Amino acid sequence: MNSEACDSCPAHVQMAKMGVDIANCDHVVALAGNPNTGKSSVFNALTGLRQHVGNWTGKTVTRAEGAFGYGGKHYKLVDLPGTYSLLSASQDEEISRNFLLFGQPDCTVVVVDATALERNLNLVLQVLEITDRAVVCVNLMDEAKRKGIKVDVRSLSRDLGVPAVSTVARTKEGLSDLVASVAGVASGVTKTSPSRVAPPAEVQEAIDGLVPLIQGMAPGLPSARWVALRLLDGDHKVREALLSGELAELADRQRQAAPLDASRIKAIAGAQ
Amino acid sequence: MTPVSVTPQAVLDRSDELRRGLDGSFRDSMVTSLYQRAGELAGRSVREQGAGKWDFDQRIDRILTSRWLGLPVMLLLLGAVFWVTILGANVPSQMLANAFFAVEAAAAAWFESMGAPWWLTGLVWHGTFRGLAWVVSVMLPPMAIFFPVFTILEDLGYLPRVAFNLDWLFRKAGAHGKQALTMAMGFGCNAAGVTSTRIIDSPRERLLAILTNNFVPCNGRFPTLIMLAVIFVAAAFPPAVAAFAAAAAVMAVVLLGVCFTLGVSWALSRSVLSGEASAFTLEMPPYRRPSILRILYTSLIDRTIFVLGRAMLTAAPAGALIWILANVQAGGTTLAERSIALLEPLGTAIGLDGVILLAYVIAIPANEIVVPTMLMCYLGGAMMMDITTYEQIREVLVGQHGWTLLTAVNLMLFSLLHNPCATTILTIWKETRSARWTALGALMPLGLAFLVCFATAQAVRLLPL
Fold first, then answer.
1. ipTM score assigned to the predicted complex
2. What H or E segment, with its residue span, contains residue A68?
3. pLDDT given for residue A272 in this prediction
4. Residue A134 and residue A181: Cα distance in Å, rounded?
């Protein structure tokens, strides 16, 4: 398609570095979620691929990729390892976190288990700390029904500030709504305003003290607030990324990209 | 382009300074507020109406993961899987072998009638093709049965229950409970098992899981075990219970492998990898109805064809190599005879023989081809198209090459314990990025295999049996 424009686009450079081939695709969509929420089923249903789906925790330890088309656009779907959080240092969590931070997907779908929403929302809130562009896919609605659990996705969507869609990935129920929501968020048509957990006052103060420095070092860096929080927590991976210049590089690419892509400007503006 | 006004070091210094200003429970309070918010959100959007079918899952779990019934039920299921595989694979294996060797004979005759030189006919048909034919006929039927059955258990949600049942054993061995899962993956393929250890957070426990994954037999090794069980164990029993006996023998080997996994984990966690086992939460997924079409697709295309394809890729050159070894002469004897003579003393000392060791050397790239390689060495370059049934194989091994029950038992032990295949070794290196751990992962099992086989052989020879 428009491979020239793609080559010059910063997402392409970064994705290529992360081993994702995004030739001929308009948007990159990441798929995150707790283990055993049917993430791989969603992946297969969307892409028509038949990646092995296992009924046990931690089956996907590497990234899988596929593609789908919607409304004349091509989407690349990257399936991240299932994780409970983005805070610890195990390898699968790091793969997910690095992809969200450095890969800058146009939209992140967080698949959650409708039968265990509370626990799953922990990861959703952590993802929303890193990115604005997310859609929550409330999956396994059939099992929830079986157990007499009802989830009000409208109220959930309102509370989270990002679209929420209920699905049964195994029977493809609700997937067209999901794709439409993804398209809206990825193209920037749907405006999101994610709910963020307000930290304790003294932490907020520390964050406010650090964010300007981070932005001074790497102007235009999205998720500067998240980086500040991780630094305050002593996260050594984020320290490394800072020292090695990886974060600054990311911000550089964001700045150069801005004139090319209007929707990205909004995204950056939203983050600051 | 923009001048960098703040250096990364300055940001770090400032963050460290601010961090010291925060009290130590900062992280806890962050996590707590995260959980609170999640609880709030869930409380607003979730409505629960009494428990329905939930009870049913729990009732099944009470049996499958019970303290007393959990392990016996698990062994019973495992035994049933082996029994079905052994019972079902025998006839198709023979049919495939018959068909392939008919093709070999016809094609070789056609080559000769076209005036092809003898070495070309030999290399192509009696070497390369025969290697492929053995691999396909020995491996395809057991895999085509074993994989779908195993995948059904996986799809139902049984594997996490296995991990739950075995957790206390692994914890006692100083290893992570999730190692039971990576071990289960190892039954499919050790390389996949090693990769799956990424689900274990602690580097120490992850290394334990990587180093011991090899002690469960992978699919490349199951056909060897099954063949030996059928030829030597089943033959000693009346036909009515022969398949049960063979299945029991295979299961005994598998359990021995689990014992070695636990024993070696225990030894390592008290020496080079010392430390405490960490706790973890394991989610019991609901039982889900397996979707038959997907199981067939996954187990046949993703697994069977994948493993078979890899075996065929290594079997073709190995077949050619064996043919060359058996037909190229140096100083009056063939290269095969020379290498076998060289390995014979070592082989005899550990209750095996030179041919078996040569087969293991040739089969380093892939364990799948050990039995075919061995048979091709025993049968030599001659046309042996009538060796297709297990009874005929037994006749060749016992009658012509002096195999005893000791040879069979030790071959099973060696097959269970010896070094991982080249793919697995490569995977260990990729996962650990350490030459030291990779070397340990390859040599420790090999040393153990020699030690155990040697001890067994000496014990049997000393005892008046």
1. 0.79
2. strand A64-70
3. 27
4. 9
